[in-house]
Every structure is written in structure tokens, then in C-alpha cells.
Amino acid sequence: MISICFRIAVIVAAYGTPLLSDALLDVPAPSNLPILFDSSNHLHRSLAYHPEQPARVEACVKALQEYQQESSCSRRLTLIDVSADTPGYEESDSEDSIRRQTISDAELEQARNVLLQIHDPSVVTNVEKRCQQSKQHRIDEGQDPLGFIGYVDDDTYLTTMSYDVCLRATATWMRAITWLYQQQKQNRDGGTTETSIPASAKSNGSLRHPTAMALTRPPGHHATHGMSNGFCLFNFAAAAAYHYQQLSTTAKISILDWDVHYGQGVADIVSKYPDTIRYASIHQSPAFPYMGTKREIRGNTLTIPMAAETTWRCGYETYLEEALNFLFASDHQPDLVIVCAGYDALDSDELASVSLNAADYGRMTRSLMGKIKESSGKKSVAFLLGLEGGYQLRHMAGGGNLQQAVVETVKALLEQ
């Protein structure tokens, strides 16, 4: 397969060191949709059963591989494994099915710098020290470096490798953002530098709104400026938004959170950027984190609580329209749209009681893409979806499971 390497330029940002120096994002042409995942995420796992488990990403990747094989979209969809050099993931027989591009040390350093900006530094350093000290203790005792540490709250666990997994997840979202920004820049400049895309890649016009997806875990949208909680150690969506603003200092960003639980962490962090970022959440109430209980706009955030048993036709479609109108208001035309893509509003998901089905996520994606096209004019708008919640993996689950909902999302993206 013909491929083109996107060498990311060294850009010095306001927060210090060069951005992703010498990093490569090798996206096969004419792929319009890179999907990044970390197969070494299994290093963050609970000893006992926990709904937030490595099988979530594994199931999604397997379903996307099957979709590639069954459809004509295979040349427009690229799975990119950014994992550490560790065993534990079974690669497909198809040599083009998964590309491997490990996150570099420079990317990890930059991700850490960003996390220290969006969180109170103690949030990052406490997790880092706890993991590193426990790992070193196990090594000193002649044990496997990978071990379970405990919990930071009732729901959020730590292993000796959790910091590494979450730092790599942050860098994954940031790598996707850098690629999207580079594509926007090429669209604006119309140049033919080494980051240019062949005409065949642009022929269907979808790269006018470059799109990427990050299938990472654990989720991040509950992590606030000052606290890890709700399965979430660090806030990846907020890190991605911050990173984009360092690349494009005048940019406006809209964040749609369709996870069934209110992403109070994103709302908390982006409230510090009232002029440039808007955040809208559609979530069940009452439900964890038992906040966002009123349908209201507060500054640059919109909360839309919904009742249990809400379906697409009976409520959700209207709520989504309201959220999109807020995120694409006449005085806020975004350059970047981020989706906190949780899939736990499925009727089959046991962590909530909303009644969407897998196909509804395709409808949601089409509505969002339609709004981007409608409001953007000739402007290139970047679009990043990142996995948050979604815990139903059982085959034949009524209304569909996580992996089916992810495939429906990807199908809708590839229609554009």
C-alpha cells in the first residue's frame, strides 16, 4: 500500500519544549480516518472484575478490523497502535490491518508538561510517584514490576503501570490533535510540503474537515483540575484542547460530551477559558457524579440532564440539537470539535439507564458532521473523537454493545 509520512514540524509552544519533535504519524494514503489505540493499555487493569477493563479497547479494535475486511472502506480507515514495546496484543494476519507507531519519549515529555498545566501538579505527581515507587519496590523484591496498588477513590484503581498508560493515552490524543492541525494548515495553505496529502486522499472532500479517533482507556472526562475520580486519572479531552490552543493561539474549540455521565472534570478545567472553549454535556440525572442536575448554561458550559429510559426519538435527538446550537453559536465558530465519546447510554449498559441503541451513535455522528459542514463555510474544522465510557461488551446485547456502537460511529464518519 502506498503511504505518506507526516513528519511533524518542531514547533516551540508557549509552555516550553518543542512539540512532538521528530515524531512520525505515518498515515496510509488515501486514508481519511486514523484511529489510534494503545494495545499496552492492559497494563492498567484491576485484579478483580471491573467494568473499566482492557477488553473494552480489544473488542473495539477487533470489531473495526472485521469491518475493514467486510467493507470497501479499508483504504480510508487506518488502525494505528501507539503501544509501548511490550507483549500482550495479538496482531492481525493482515499486514496492513494495524500500523505500529510507538509514542516517543519526546511526546511523553510534552504530554506530561500539558497535564501539569491543566491539573494541579499534585494530581499528576502523586499518581506518578505512587506508581513508580510501588514498581521499584516490586523490582527490589524480585517480583514482576506489574502489580496492583489499590484505589484512589471507591471506583478508580491504580497499578504500577497506570501512570505510564495514562501518560501514553494523553500523548495519543495530542498526537491526533497535531495531525489534525497539520492537515488544517495544509488545507489553508494549499502547499505541497512533505505533509501534503495526495489528490486521491482529498478527492471526496472529507479532509476539508480532518478527522481522527483515539481509542484509549481509562476514560478521562471526570478528572478535574484538582482530583482524579470516576475511573479517570487524567483528563485527556482537556489536554487535547490545551495542546491545540498552543498550536493555534486564536482558535476556538467546542467539546461535546455524549457520555451518559456528566464530565464535570472537563467542565471544571475549560471554565478557565471562557472566550475560546465551549463544553456541552448530555447526561443522565440522577447519576454519577451527581452534578449538572439543571438544564442550564453557566459561562461557557451547557448541561443537559436527561431522565432514565430516554430514547433517540423521545428526547435525545432534541437534546443533541440544543447542544449543537450552543457549540456552534454565531459568536463561537469552532476550529476544532472534540467529542468525549462515551458509549454507556446504550440500553444494554449496566452503568446507566438510558435507552439508546448502537445505530443511534451513527445518527449522532451524522448530526454533528452535518452541523460542522453547515456552520463552517469554507473553513477547515478539525474533528477528534476520544473514547470515554461504554462497558457493555456482551454479544447479542439488546440494543447493541460498545464495539458495535463504535463501528456505527466510524461508518458515519466515513460517509462524509
Topology:
Layout: E1 3-7, E2 11-12, E3 18-19, E4 24-28, E5 33-37, H1 55-70, E6 77-81, E7 98-100, H2 105-118, H3 121-140, E8 148-151, E9 157-159, H4 162-189, H5 199-202, E10 211-215, H6 236-247, E11 253-257, H7 264-270, E12 277-284, E13 296-298, E14 301-306, H8 316-327, E15 336-341, H9 358-376, E16 382-387, H10 402-415
Parallel strand pairs: 5-6, 5-10, 6-7, 10-16, 11-12, 11-15, 12-14, 15-16
Antiparallel strand pairs: 1-4, 2-3, 8-9, 13-14
Helix pairs in contact: 1-10, 2-3, 2-4, 2-6, 4-6, 8-9, 9-10
Organism: Seminavis robusta
GO molecular function: histone deacetylase activity
Region (Disordered): 184-206
Summarize the structure.
InterPro entries: HDACs (IPR000286), His_deacetylse_dom (IPR023801), His_deacetylse_dom_sf (IPR037138), Ureohydrolase_dom_sf (IPR023696). The protein is an alpha/beta fold. Helices cover 35% and strands 18% of the residues.
Please characterize this protein's 3D structure.
The protein has 416 residues and is of the alpha/beta class. The chain has a single domain (3-121, 167-415), classed as Arginase, Chain A. 35% of the residues lie in helices and 18% in strands. It has helices spanning 55-70, 105-118, 121-140, 162-189, 199-202, 236-247, 264-270, 316-327, 358-376, 402-415; strands spanning 3-7, 11-12, 18-19, 24-28, 33-37, 77-81, 98-100, 148-151, 157-159, 211-215, 253-257, 277-284, 296-298, 301-306, 336-341, 382-387. A 10-stranded mixed β-sheet has the order 7-6-5-10-16-15-11-12-14-13, with helices on both faces. Strands 1-4 form a two-stranded antiparallel ribbon. α1 (55-70) crosses α10. 52% of the residues are buried.
